[in-house]
Amino acid sequence: MMKEMDYIRPNSIEEAVQILSDPGRRGKLLAGGTDLLVQKRVDPPDYDCFVDISRLSEIQQIRVSDGVFYLGAGVTHAVIAQDPLILKYVSFLAQACLSVGSPQIRNTGTLGGNVANAAACADSLPALVCLDAVAHLRSKRGERQMLVTELVKGPHETALETDELITHFTFLQPPPGVKTHFIKIGRRNAQSISRLSIAAMGRKDKNGNVDFIRICPGAATPRTMRFTEVETYLMGKQACEELYVDAGQRMAARMVEITGVRWSTEYKEVALKAITERVLREVLG
Amino acid sequence: MSDLQYKYIGKPADRVDALEKVTGAAKYVGDYYLPDMLYARALRSELPHARIKHLDTRPALNVPGVIAVITSEDFIDHGRFGFPVKDHFALAFEKVRYVGQAIAAVAAETPEAALNGVKAIICELEPLPGVFDMDHALDPDAPQVGFEREDHKHPNFLDMSPVYKGDPDEVLKDCPVVLHEEYRTVHQEHSYLETEGALAIPTSDGGVTVYCNNQSPFITKGNLVAVLGLDPIKVRVIQPHVGGSFGGKDDLNYLTACQVAALALKAKRPVRMTFSREESMIASYKRDAMHMRITLGADKDGTLRACKAIHTLDSGAYSSQSPFTAWRASIHAMGAYRYDAVKVEVTSVYTNNGFSGAFRGFGNTEACFGIESAIDELAEKLGMDPIDFRLKNCLRVGDVTPHGQKLTESVGLVECLETVRKLSDWDRKRAEYARQTSQDTRCGIGVAVLFHGTSLGAEGVDCATNTIEILPDYSVACASGLTDYGQGPRTVYTLITAEELGISPERVRILLADTDTAIDSGPTVASRSTILAGNAMRVAAQTLARTLNFAAADMLKCEPQRVMRIGEAYVGPNEEPVSWEKVVDHARSMGLVLSAHGKWSAPEIHWDHHKGTGTPYFGYHFAAQVAEVQVDLRIGKTQVLNIWAAHDTGKVIFPQGALGQVYGGITQGLGYALMEEAIYADGYLQSVNFDTYLIPTSMDVPDMTARFVETNFSPGPYGAKNIAEPAMVPTAPAIVNAIYHATGKRIRVLPADLERVALGKSLHKRGSPVSCKVGLKVK
Ligand SMILES: Cc1cc2nc3c(=O)[nH]c(=O)nc-3n(C[C@H](O)[C@H](O)[C@H](O)COP(=O)(O)OP(=O)(O)OC[C@H]3O[C@@H](n4cnc5c(N)ncnc54)[C@H](O)[C@@H]3O)c2cc1C
Fold this sequence. Notes:
The structure holds 2 protein chains of 2 kinds.
Chain A: E1 6-8, H1 13-20, E2 27-30, H2 36-42, E3 49-52, E4 62-65, E5 68-72, H3 77-81, H4 84-89, H5 91-98, H6 103-108, H7 111-117, H8 125-130, E6 134-139, E7 142-147, H9 148-151, E8 152-154, E9 157-158, E10 165-172, E11 179-185, E12 196-204, E13 210-218, H10 228-234, H11 241-259, H12 265-284
Parallel strand pairs in A: 1-3, 2-3
Antiparallel strand pairs in A: 4-5, 5-10, 6-7, 6-10, 8-9, 11-12, 12-13
Chain B: H1 18-22, E1 38-44, E2 50-56, H2 58-61, E3 66-70, E4 80-81, E5 88-89, E6 95-96, E7 102-108, H3 111-120, E8 122-127, E9 157-165, H4 168-173, E10 177-185, E11 197-202, E12 208-212, H5 217-228, E13 235-238, H6 251-267, E14 271-274, H7 277-283, E15 289-298, E16 304-316, H8 322-332, E17 341-350, H9 364-382, H10 386-393, H11 413-423, H12 426-434, E18 441-453, E19 463-470, E20 476-480, H13 489-501, E21 508-510, H14 529-556, E22 564-566, E23 569-571, H15 580-589, E24 595-601, E25 607-608, E26 613-614, E27 620-632, E28 637-648, H16 655-674, E29 680-681, E30 684-685, E31 703-708, H17 731-743, H18 754-759, H19 770-775
Parallel strand pairs in B: 1-14, 12-13, 16-17, 20-21, 28-31
Antiparallel strand pairs in B: 1-7, 2-6, 2-8, 3-7, 4-5, 9-17, 10-15, 11-12, 11-14, 15-16, 18-27, 19-20, 19-24, 22-23, 25-26, 27-28, 29-30
The structure holds flavin-adenine dinucleotide.
The site of flavin-adenine dinucleotide (FAD) has 29 residues of chain A, from strand 2, helix 2, helix 6, helix 7 and strand 10.
């Protein structure tokens, strides 16, 4: 009988990338397995060895130093959702991770897996992209860094090489007074794929004018990205209901510009307007 | 009725199978492994409609590990199958009519080898044009799905079930308020936890024993006897624990049993087939989809006068239970109301959209959504409160139903309506929510009522026989042909036996269903187990109790009528109490028979299928449910906050079981209302697993408050009726009526998903055959 699959559990990043670069096998990183093992059921795998990094403590840290957040790729959604530093400074990432699947999935699924799997509906992406998060990649060939929004090129398409591992993500702690928020639309309240989502960071100055804004919809465009045109439009304007409505229309228009009209567009336009208004109300209100 | 009268009936109890199920000790078909057992897999059609041009199974036999292959040639008359219409085959013969239909089956040493065997079979299918729209199934030029008919009606015509009273067209003419609307429901997947499976073991006498997770083992047996040509004595069907059914473990399981049995006889080894989730979803039948056209007429004062309900039911590729489903839909299509005139016609047709069969509610779930939506719309037109309008017109004791049946007892609908009105704080919330102006989120509250005929109705012979026996260890073993696939009848039988014998329920053991030990009592369907087999159990236990009483009187030296019970012990006027064990011993020494049969037959009823009148059922369950929702108007998301449910179940025998059915029914009804839709695109099911076929999670379930209105139902055991199906039926219309109250937008097509609520229409991705094709070959 043909053997199904090899399985190796490296004890360090070093060892892991060593295995990935071994020309004698086609290794595949296995973190929580919540995407990989499901896919393997229907798509014939193009690898012959699981490289299990789920117990690598090196990639499971969360810390902030000198205003820089360091988030290990192996951290689970459950851990992020209740991490005090995350909740304090970038609570929308906790909201996003808390919206993933169910307790079982959140206890196993990781941030690195969510990003590397690169589903258009991956729930951590909008917040990470808003934060201009940088992914740190390691291979036997060395290290490199890439913005998450560039690493994830499209649905299930990344700039990762097959021998590369995401070790961690970094991003700047948001400036004081910046609020963050995340909204997800799903067809049910748990185990639900995002029909659409949105993440935003914002602040207004003492005159009530927008002086910090970043906004990124999820499951709206093939590549998850900030809608900088809308951010530019909002900057300096008086934060008010009319502005949020205006921004919602601009977000929807921009989305259709990027994607063209698809089967779901009619709904997504309406819904994106609504959640744009709501997210802005939260971060600027 | 006073509960003091009973010791166990209506009192809190544990489910008899709870412990073994939660500890994992309970065995299901997929848990059985026998030495030498083979694994079976079916080759299934990847086309919705095609002629089988060439089928060569020999290459499969060359695949390492493959031991046997079968086709329709291996059965008598090609395994012709089906009730009430014999339009199906144990394996496809000449034609396939739906994607997922089994064409051949392979038994092999491993599941992998079986799959490789399936892939090696040469099967050339010549595609035929299909019928995918039920509204065009009877067009003169529609492709032919069904067989030619002797009466020369359209081959895609299956059946038409009418109910007629007077001439509604005449009455409608002088109704000042008339409503005409169309409603649609969609196919629903049963979503049982355990997929289909069967294990066949050839026996030394040339027969076969089959373990199958079916609903009705005697039907499996009947089919095995027919398609294999075996002596009935040599065919035994055992039903192990079953992981849910909801009506879904009839036909496909019977077909599967036939396939594994034929393979086992051919291979002379045990053969088991268990389905992957994908295979289960693709191959299994669904709840039918229905297109309903309803006209209602009323006087200005809110008196309902006339109802016309002209429905089409999509039966898919085969009849399965659809003629019966359509009949039940027709009986309930006008709702639980009085009318001067009624015309109902429910027509079932063949298409190539999978196939439809039994599913909880059985036509009434569909019909109730239609009529309870229409009634709500009419109440609004009349400017009446929906509960007031229903109270004004609903059936009460003494009324004659539109079918011509006089209701003489056990009609608790008014009380159900009043109960939910009070529990839900209806009047205050109706008024308060009507004043909302938010364009963001709004709340709403809606109601729906139901009547649901008990048991089979005039569909067939309606009786059951249970058996009882005292074993040497003083335990009591009972058997019933009406089986437990999760609904809980084994606990009901236990409580009835304990009550009648005056013994602790721990002594009672209800055997798992086995055609060698139980007596054929018809199908386990139609929420009939508690009434039919509950009565049979009671009769059997009473017979045995009389025998023991006689023995006790002999021991206590008194007249039998003077024997009393204290706990399990027997006491007479003169002597010390004697234990149950002693009385059993004494009865044995007297040579008395410590076993009994108890048979119960439902009251005789009659239905005239042409005139559309008669007595369709010998009793009815009544219920009212109120739903409170919060609707996000902008994104179309509905959160159900509360459901209040009042059900006239008659006497409740097993309260936790009844509550479990209500909670589960509401949850399944919520799925039907808001998210469940088995979409067929050109005959291909679009969701083949639970990643895309969505059912509610525990996070979607609202607070639920259930009350039982226990009107006495004299034919039922202790006055009991039923609950399993009726629990889910009114939920979807109650929710959709609440959505209307919140949004002012009427949803006439299920489900009320994000797009329908936000945009008033559904949006779907272009259909694709890929999920089915991949799903049928999943390892
Ligand atoms: C029932 C269910 C519900 C779900 N619900 C949601 C949801 O609501 N929202 C959502 O966004 N997702 C959801 N998912 C998807 C999945 O759980 C997440 O994407 C999760 O974050 C994946 O992480 P993982 O650790 O399990 O990844 P794995 O499955 O182990 O890996 C996924 C991919 O990433 C690669 N990979 C993993 N770690 C690294 C690394 N450090 N460096 C490079 N490559 C790596 C793997 O090789 C693989 O290709 C759900 C999944 C299931 C089964």
